[in-house]
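Risk mitigation, structural track. In case the binding assays with manganese (II) ion fail to produce interpretable data, a predicted complex structure has been prepared as a fallback.
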Amino acid sequence: MRDASQAVLDRVSSSNAVYERALGAYLGLALGDALGATVEFMTPREIALRFEKQGGVHRHIIGGGWLKLVRGQVTDDTTMSLALGAALLQGQREGRPFDTRLIADAYVAWWRGKPVDCGNTCRRGIQRYLRDGSLAGPQQDSDGGNGALMRNLPVALATLGNDALFERVSLAQAHVTHHHALSDAAVLGIGYLLRALLAGEDRLAEQAQALAAAHRAFRFQPYPGRASGYVVDTVQTVLHCVTTHDDFEAAVIAAVNRGDDADTTGALVGMLAGARCGASRLPRHWLNRLQRGVLLDITEQASALLALSMSPRAAPAADPHPF
Ligand code: MN
Ligand code: MN
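Fallback model:
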């Protein structure tokens, strides 16, 4: 009897630890997005001049930027993730687990909701789906942006413990808008970094090296210094920042001050660094700035998606929409 209750307690505390890291990752994504959006498309030099009074470093969530955001507002990186997460949960409720069509419909609904921004490749993919109902476009060079990578966190959470399912759903959600070998490699590679952190394994440096060895385009040492929306530049910047800085805040600040696609590099660094430190160690002064609704949606989704990964229905026998 004592053994059985100890086993239950162990399970609860280990799932609490996973939840703590999952929530850290999801909130970290939103924090990096909100911080980085202020300086998106600026150069490091422009950022240093603009924030001269703060030692040349942008470090506070203040909104603004080219999107003229209110303080604490997030952009497509976070809201597309939430749309994807909601589609995965809807699939579970409706007995259509991991149905790619629900994901594509969620992207359409997201886009029709007039998001504050939408990348060109995302828009093109959504319009193609609306036009012909296809869940993936042909593989093409112009699909090498980071738009599929930036939003894949919910899939990592919902498929924990099932790598085959993780890979299938990740690529399916990606291909709705981005069909490119390096985008695929980034989605899976960064996803596996995240999954290891969620499992409590801190092998980030080693895994980052392995990812760069497997896909030489992602080599980040020495750091080439580009932080654009091209998935190669994004991955290099993310790997450089998370392996150079152990501290959450330092890692995210380093990423966004590279400028360019700062909200997306910030979001991805925030995701990995947040999984590493856990939600309770995220900076309070940043969390307090985050939009209330986003904070609540993320908190709810993080636990529901983890629960989905533990549900027996999580692994459908076959892909209803193979491509
Ligand atoms: Mn964005
Ligand atoms: Mn961006």
